[in-house]
Amino acid sequence: MHIFLALVAGLVFGIGLIISGMTDPAKVIGFLDLAGQWNPSLGFVMAGAILVGVIAFQFASKRDKSLLGDVMRLPTATQIDRRLVLGGLAFGAGWGLAGYCPGPALASLVSGGAKPLIFVAAMVTGMAIFEMMERMTARHASAA
After folding, report:
1. Which of 14, 28, 30, 87 is an S-S bond match for 39, by CB 3.0 to 4.6 Å?
2. Burial class of 93 by CB neighbour count within 10 A (0 to 12, 13 to 18, 19+)
3. Residue 30 near residue 39 (C-beta atoms within 8 A)
4. Are 117 and 105 in contact (CB under 8 A)?
């Protein structure tokens, strides 16, 4: 049941990304181009997502278990640290250069084409490198 509901949620999310135009790199880059032909439409998509997220987190923060009965695991970090800033900079650079972020890139794979495939391959490679570095850091910390 959990996998089925995860699939449904992913499909709804992907369809929403496609309908809102978030899978179109030109539209995303137009939103980021403040000095050129700025396209504010994605600002409305983001505002809607933030509103839904705020409501969902308020609802979730009052619960001990998820709607499916699992233990609720909400983020606990409250500090802005070096890792957060560097991760945000890397995300922003990738988004600005390619016009994709992870969700829309995965949804764009359905349409075919080399650009989303190259982006997803680079994203997965970056995630693998990060995971290897985390494991090496953890090994060195435990050995010391």
Report:
1. 30
2. exposed
3. yes
4. no
Across the range 13-34, mean pLDDT stands at 87
Mean pLDDT of 98-110: 89
- The neighbour count for residue 130, using CB atoms within 10 Å, is 12
Is the model's pTM score more than 0.85? no
107-117 confidence digits (pLDDT tens): 898 888 899 99
Q: How many residues does the chain have?
A: 144
Dmax (CA) of the chain? 54
SS3 string of the chain?
CHHHHHHHHHHHHHHHHHHHCCCCHHHHHHHHCCCCCCCCHHHHHHHHHHHHHHHHHHHHHCCCECCCCCECCCCCCCCCCHHHHHHHHHHHHHHHHHCCCHHHHHHHHHHCCHHHHHHHHHHHHHHHHHHHHHHHHHHHHHHC
Number of Cβ within 10 Å of residue 127's Cβ equals 11
Residues β-bridged to residue 65 = 71
> Measured between alpha carbons, how far is 12 from 107 in angstroms, rounded to an integer?
11
